[in-house]
Design brief:
The chain is mainly α and 323 residues long. It has 18 helices and no strands. Helix 13 packs antiparallel against helix 14. The radius of gyration is 27 Å and the shape is elongated.
């Protein structure tokens, strides 16, 4: 609808202030739809026709800088974000511009510059969107092992001691902000990577309870499936065969079928089948292997091993009967 209205204004009021506003409004609308290449062409033509517009409209200037970032014109994007910050640090978009500037520095491997920018945002705009983004980025850096706050003297802040406490601060400061949802998934993934599967699954359950309509719900379900499957494999590798079976059973009962299919759980199914064999439950093992062989994708991914294990299990069953 917005596109149609802007086009009407452009046709009806050429060479007027209304045309100028509609021209950049259309570019902003393209950004909101993720059509960055088309938006960039609009901004650059518009900036040549009305060079003063972006200087006095921080929202459009921010969108222009973001468009440069999304189209991988990183040097131009940095200069544009810096222009925003230097013109007036009190502007509404400054905290977002600074956070994105930090992202750009990270992208260019300028880690120390990025840390200084994130620190500035956290100190000056602690409750802003830019502040939340900066906290998440610091948590990510700590999780990746690229940041040791004990040796960084620019962050004398108690909650910046570990990734989880940093992500939790985002949730505490702005629980209704979509970035709090991002922080929840970061916490769950952090626990998953550390092999603390129960904490990861507990965090995801908390996320599902707090944000049942989240746009990240599918991401959360996918992470939940990945965590269950890794936990199943972990228990099997340690010889905890009953726990492996129970975890996989819980996975099937908890995760939606569409997500299970996307997770391609065939390796875990092999290990669950093997767990049944180890416990002498050959009928259940055979059913698991047959389930793999009954799935076209399962045949491609694990068909040979499933067939081998099914044959082996059947032979063991016959040997038991004969005995």
């Amino acid at each position: 609808f917005a596109f149609v209205e802007f086009e009407k204004i452009l046709r009806s009021y050429p060479n007027t202030a209304a045309e100028q506003d509609a021209y950049f409004g259309l570019a902003d609308a393209l950004v909101s739809q993720g059509l960055y290449s088309q938006a960039l062409a609009r901004y650059e033509v518009g900036a040549r026709r009305w060079p003063a517009f972006l200087k006095v409209n921080p929202g459009a200037l921010y969108n222009y800088a973001e468009t440069l970032f999304q189209t991988q014109r990183y040097a131009d994007s940095i200069q544009t974000f810096l222009q925003m910050v230097n013109v007036d640090p009190s502007l509404e978009y400054t905290h977002r511009a600074l956070a994105r500037l930090g992202d750009l520095y990270l992208q260019q491997k300028r880690r120390d510059d990025a840390l200084k920018v994130y620190a500035r945002v956290i100190r000056r705009y602690p409750l802003s969107e830019g502040g939340m983004v900066s906290l998440i980025r610091l948590g990510d850096l700590m999780q990746e092992g690229d940041l040791n706050l004990e040796s960084e003297h620019i962050f004398p802040v108690p909650f910046l001691a570990a990734p989880v406490s940093t992500y939790r601060k985002v949730i505490e400061l702005a629980p209704a902000n979509p970035l709090a949802e991002v922080a929840f998934l970061r916490i769950a993934d952090f626990y998953r990577k550390k092999g603390e599967y129960l904490k990861a699954l507990g965090t995801l359950q908390e996320f599902f309870g707090k944000y049942p309509e989240s746009r990240l719900l599918q991401n959360g379900r996918a992470l939940q499936a990945q965590t269950f499957l890794e936990q199943t494999l972990f228990y099997h590798s340690r010889g905890y065969f009953l726990r492996a079976i129970q975890t996989y059973t819980h996975f099937r009962a908890t995760v939606p079928e569409s997500v299970i299919k996307q997770a391609r759980p065939f390796k875990a199914m092999l290990m669950v089948g093997d767990s049944y064999v180890r416990l002498g439950l050959h009928n259940q093992a055979n059913q698991m292997f047959e389930s793999i062989l009954g799935d076209a994708e399962g045949v491609v991914v694990a068909g040979d091993e499933a067939l081998f294990r099914l044959s082996q299990s059947a032979m063991e069953t016959l040997a038991i009967i004969a005995y």
